[in-house]
């Protein structure tokens, strides 16, 4: 069994308690790695290292162009190790190798992009109405950043945080999911080889109550960047508020994927499949509510079922596999629980609805691609995030009803629209309460484009230039050019 160590202050260390926990392969259900079980004492060491690095001339004295050069070198190094990192992620989270390989090969772009932006962080000279005064602004790093990432796409979501944070001059302490810590520790090896100063990046592994909570509450942490469930997000937001910390939060979703009667149905079917069964439905943007116009409802559902029932479950490392296992046993039980809830609510299970009986999959944490019809928007299956391969079909009559159903949700992360009507394609996104709206596509993302949700789906943006601003604070500087100080008892 492979044994890992945490990365703190440029050193590979065991937890101060000497405790470990196991990480399991979702395909086999068997443990494959031992991970240090950190606690508050390890958090203290990591945050102290990050705080020192923030003031160390090796990092603080580095020019913005120098930071950008390090980030670009990191991008090159990631490209060289992309296949290896993809294999680690598959072993840890069970996603398809084809998907994880596409992600790990794309990671470099975040470091190239923010490496290029690092020396484009500019203040301004402010025209002032105060005679004899000169005013300018400068943008500075916020400080030590606590970055907490989930288990579904660890390296991708870590890069969304790390690249802009480092470009802005911050230092970072990562807490990966206890289910998928290995890939971020392997990533830290690459950061070390590239030559970032000690303490700029730190990784503390462990459980939420033992590592996540003390990290969020640490007085030297200035900002928390979190991706995960809305329940955990609310707890982190409350803790961060007590310390007046900045937050960026990308939380859950219950995204509507809306198919109109004029849509190209074959393309829409593929878009629906991509939205809910790719990555076994373990994506925050999962199009888990399928809204279908009544005029084509039966026809479209038949096409969808014909496509979905042939989805191939199997070894995520195999190029023939289309649906892999879910990442961990608690998530498997949660998904199966929601399937039971849907049946109890009266939804009609058209496909799947349990664990597969396919030979060779018995030990893995698999759930069949599952489709429910007869769903209305007040059911729990239509309102709560399942985070698995479970689709709810809801019919609608016209555009007004589609918008009403789509927006009737506590979430607002993403939405999809399938239509050939140009007017609708241009105007409907304005009416949908979602941070990302896709038209005739789904799950398309780029380092160039801001990503983040509305309502209970989060705060702030990741990727694009908007993300860089999340890791900067603005300072205003006044200079007097007058020879004499005026009346000190009167505001100037």
TrEMBL record:
<dbReference type="InterPro" id="IPR016160">
    <property type="entry name" value="Ald_DH_CS_CYS"/>
</dbReference>
<comment type="similarity">
    <text>Belongs to the aldehyde dehydrogenase family.</text>
</comment>
<dbReference type="InterPro" id="IPR016161">
    <property type="entry name" value="Ald_DH/histidinol_DH"/>
</dbReference>
<dbReference type="Pfam" id="PF00171">
    <property type="entry name" value="Aldedh"/>
</dbReference>
<dbReference type="InterPro" id="IPR015590">
    <property type="entry name" value="Aldehyde_DH_dom"/>
</dbReference>
<dbReference type="InterPro" id="IPR016162">
    <property type="entry name" value="Ald_DH_N"/>
</dbReference>
<dbReference type="GO" id="GO:0016620">
    <property type="term" value="F:oxidoreductase activity, acting on the aldehyde or oxo group of donors, NAD or NADP as acceptor"/>
</dbReference>
<protein>
    <submittedName>
        <fullName>Carnitine dehydratase</fullName>
    </submittedName>
</protein>
<dbReference type="InterPro" id="IPR016163">
    <property type="entry name" value="Ald_DH_C"/>
</dbReference>
<keyword id="KW-0560">Oxidoreductase</keyword>
<dbReference type="InterPro" id="IPR029510">
    <property type="entry name" value="Ald_DH_CS_GLU"/>
</dbReference>
